[in-house]
Amino acid sequence: ASRAKWKVIAADMPLSLVVRDVPLHPEVFEAVANADNGAPKGRELEIAGLLQFIKRNRIHNVVWITADVHYCSANYYDPRKAKFTEFLPFWEFVAGPLNAGTFGPNVLDTTFGPEVKYQCVPKKPNRAPSEGMQFFGKIKIDARTSAMTVSLHNVANEKLYSVVLPPLLS
Questions:
Q1: pLDDT tens across 13-50, in order?
Q2: Cis (ω within 30 of 0) for the bond into 97?
Q3: Do strands 7-10 and 62-66 pair parallel, antiparallel, or not at all (unpaired)?
Q4: What is the DSSP-derived secondary structure letter of residue 164?
Q5: Which residues contact 130 (CB under 8 A, 6 or more apart)?
Q6: Cα-based distances in Å from 117 to 3, 114, 170
Q7: DSSP assignment letter at 83
Q8: Phi and psi at residue 21, in whole multiples of 5°?
Q9: pTM score of the predicted model
């Protein structure tokens, strides 16, 4: 029932980046994606239900912000490219954590049709925080146009990627 122009969903784990519990249990997944690229299973069922609800109720301008994969990424989700198609297109922006080893990129599970638009990963894995490969995001909404600008930055506050999202009519 929100009348807000933008609906931002914050989640601790990314939607389609495969995060395995390695090295102890590589068959166990810490996040939503389960690496099978098929119909939703496990935690993916909860996301599928939420995405269906958003589509069924015509809730536009939904953006996800997630973290916990030790690099940054901007991902666009398109039902035309997905195995599960009952959702409206949306963006997910991933950044963080701010003080941990940097590594990646993670494999994408295609259940929800993600497309990587941008990612910043170290050339060598498991880089120390002192090497500056730490990331955060900023969101700014223009008061006049209601356009949302999302940018990803490194620890020195250098803008690495930015996209302007015009609001859709609800």
A1: 999 998 887 777 778 888 899 999 999 999 999 999 99
A2: yes
A3: parallel
A4: E
A5: none
A6: 29, 9, 25
A7: S
A8: -85, 70
A9: 0.93
